[in-house]
Amino acid sequence: ARIMAFVEVRSTSFDDACARLDALDGRGELFEQGRTELKEVLGLIRAFGVPESHFALNLSIARGLDYYTGTVYETHLVEHPQIGSICSGGRYDNLAGHYTKSHLPGVGISIGATRLFWQLREAGLLGPATSTVQVLVTMMDETQLPAYLELATQLRNGGIATEVVMEPGKLAKQFKYADRAGIRFVVVLGPD
């Protein structure tokens, strides 16, 4: 029952969130440390001027239990909950200790670039895909790779940004890739 009471704590008000944290019946030094840290984070969120409508306390979130050692967080696009979290992370006290003898506490995040850019494009905040690549050299036959690379080198030497498909595949799929990437010209070079 106490665990359920803990994970059910949710609030979008600074004062209510602190009151709910104070009301939790937890025991032990680690619990008190966590409660104090969360209240400090809430105070800093308020000090930064973040409106209450832009944050929520949710104690059911658990991330990376093997390396996060403090507060964890997730960000969502409120108007598009169907895409899930677009940025998540937390505090870790010694993750860098795997690579150095120094004790280096830190905070890290990861951004779901695919989710974020998909939504930005859907919202019309990004223009159509453009590419600096001007020409795509397709691959019809792996044995012709040297010829494809030589052609690409000649094009590049002529100032034409060129990409070479490095794995054989259906020609239609290669054309589709060029179209999606905004590559305007496609070279099909075969043995004939």
Question: What topology does this entry show?
Answer:
Layout: H1 2-7, E1 10-11, H2 14-23, H3 29-47, E2 57-58, E3 72-75, E4 87-92, E5 106-111, H4 113-122, E6 135-137, H5 145-157, E7 162-164, H6 171-181, E8 185-187
Parallel strand pairs: 6-7, 6-8
Antiparallel strand pairs: 1-2, 3-4, 4-5
User: How many independent structural domains?
Assistant: 3
Question: How many individual β-strands?
Answer: 8
Tally of DSSP helical segments: 6
Strand order of the largest sheet: 3-4-5
Low-pLDDT stretches are none
| Mean pLDDT figure | 87
Q: Work out the strand percent.
A: 15-25%
Radius of gyration, CA atoms, in whole angstroms? 26 Å
Enzyme class: ligase
Organism: mine drainage metagenome
InterPro entries: aa-tRNA-synth_II/BPL/LPL (IPR045864), Anticodon-bd (IPR004154), Anticodon-bd_dom_sf (IPR036621), HisRS-like_core (IPR041715)
Domain Class II Histidinyl-tRNA synthetase (HisRS)-like catalytic core: 31-114
